[in-house]
Amino acid sequence: MRRLRGGAVTAAVVMVAVAGCKAEHGKGASGPEQTGGGGAALTAAESLPVKGRAPKTGYSRARFGTAWADTDSNSCDTRDDILKRDLKAVKVTGGTCKVTYGLLEPDPYSGKDITYRRGRSQVDIDHVVALSDAWQKGAKYWAPSKRIALANDPLNLLAVDASTNRGKGDGDTATWIPPNQAYRCTYVAAQVAVKKKYGLWVTAAEKTAMKKVLATCPDQKLPTGGNPTKAPERFRAR
């Protein structure tokens, strides 16, 4: 996704988000468990450290290990784990973990209903905090095991409409929010949860955007759980 520039553009994104959260927040598809007390997400957003975005130099997907590694050792890859969590009416290949069919009702990003069929790219598993965004906000300096953990943590993963997700790119809250107004507060809370769990920083514009969205839904809960922040030693990343 091409980054948006200028305070006026960022402000416009935030104002649309605010309107959406005021209208209806907290509804959408399944995903990470929403726990924590009232105001937890806003309080957490306020605590995130602020720094400038570091250069993207050195980033590649390989820095976060092999895609969809089975870091929880349940003999299923991470992608299929998330499909089974977020889809309804799931069907799998006999004797395997491979999801062949399911219903995303609704897709959290667009609000529309989508039928998933394996081999057709209508459903993506999105990294709520994009890996390249994480790289520029602290992950560049991590041990490989922590980067692998982030890339496969269910707390940071969500089944979504593929076409809508491609529009997100590596955007943060200051540059992209879901078109589905009903999911915006939940989405921002998830980004806050992941950044807090892994010790990532945010830019000043990003923190402002997060707080403006969450101020409209002060009882928004903070997602918790997921995997440990260090992957098992058998997994390697460059």
TrEMBL record:
Transmembrane segments: none annotated. This is GmrSD restriction endonucleases C-terminal domain-containing protein. It holds the Pfam family GmrSD_C. Residues 77-212 form the GmrSD restriction endonucleases C-terminal domain. Residues 218-238 are annotated as: Disordered. It comes from the Bacteria.
